[in-house]
Design brief:
heterodimer, A: 226 residues, MetI-like fold, 0% strand, globular, B: 247 residues, alpha/beta, D-Maltodextrin-Binding Protein, domain 2, 2 domains, five-stranded mixed beta sheet, 11 helices, 41% helix
Amino acid sequence: MAAAELAAVWLTLKLAGIVTALLLVIGTPIAWWLARTRSRLKGVIGAVVALPLVLPPTVLGFYLLVAMGPNGPIGGLTQSLGLGTLPFTFAGLVIASVFYSLPFVVQPLQNAFEAIGERPLEVAATLRASPWDTFWSVAVPLARPGFISGAILGFAHTVGEFGVVLMIGGNIPEKTRVVSVLIYDHVEAMEYTQAHVLAGGMVAFSFVVLLALYTFNPQHLGGRRG
Amino acid sequence: MKRFSLLLAPLLFAASAHAGEVSVAVAANFTAPMQKIAAEFEKDTGHKAQLAFGATGKFYAQIANGAPFEVLLAADDETPARLEREQLAAPGTRFTYAIGRLVLWSARDGYVDGRGEVLKKADFKHLAVANPKTAPYGAAAVEALQKLGLLETVQLRFVQGENIAQTYQFVATGNAELGFVALSQVHKDGKLTAGSGWVVPASLHAPIRQDALTLARGRHNPAAGALLAYLKGDKARSIIKSFGYEL
């Protein structure tokens, strides 16, 4: 593989790794809240989290481009903090990908938390475990398959991200040119051989990821229990 | 002769018509003029042109793999020539329908001066350019920067649009302070529609010849031939010129 390909692969893995870690941190409390709450806001928050599942990535990408631009609300905020604007930066890709892959982590976690039911938590409470302690010693271990599914799906989905990155990335080597964008570039430039190498690799990678998910975690596939 | 064909063409088409339909792949930079031309074309001939806009390289891949386009209006002259060589097009139909002009443009008033000196000052963070590997306007921009001796200094600030429409979007949203776009995107009836710009002298890059041709699938569709003929007519040509193309 040429240097450009290696740089894109490395950048993609770095992006997916950081995004997955962030999503586990952000997604866990959201999923826990969605699983436990009786608030009327549950439907609203659940719907907002699920939006990237149904929105075309170009819609998300376009609004992020406008919102993070110098005249948008996020862009205004980052500029006043002296951070400049986010499009065309790696940080911008990370933030966009967190939005984009959020449901793929939250939904398996939420299902796993819901599947625990009230009882183990009540038992823990009668044994005088604090809610914090209960969460870490009871809920998290019982929801382990949900964490595995969420992490795998979040990672794989970020690797496969294209439309959003295309819209806000600017195709900068080693900063925003991820594998999917480079494949697109090769196809556009009619460099089909190079395109095949990366595209074939992508197919193999996705298959292996899903195979792992099916093999080790069949009941939590896609966050739904049969 | 031209005048004659202009007067007669609609009549001929009207006579030959049951109104047909033609499916057209249009280079992104030609979006605005083509919408206008297609509307006139339908009015004058009764034929309907179904337009799809996008990057020429992508259209090539789609056409080579059986996409049902009947006419291509490319952003370059190489792709149509290649389609002809590979017998994916109707032979002998290729012609240059427009010559594109490049403009260094900013959405901000007064940011780009009339001589492009802003490039030398280089106080911008992002300069938007269409991917030079795939987009003719991107290649022309790189060539012009090379001739100006500025490529080295500004290259690190490149942000690339996958086609000229996306490049325009980067600049229009203010995410890139300035960028090289097609004059047709920011120009109408002799002046810029917004912001500030410097029309890059044609001497700084090879001419951006945009060729059109009938594709293999359109060979037997009279509406395809009618559209190409219409593009050569005075009405279409004056629309094309009004968007800043040369002919």
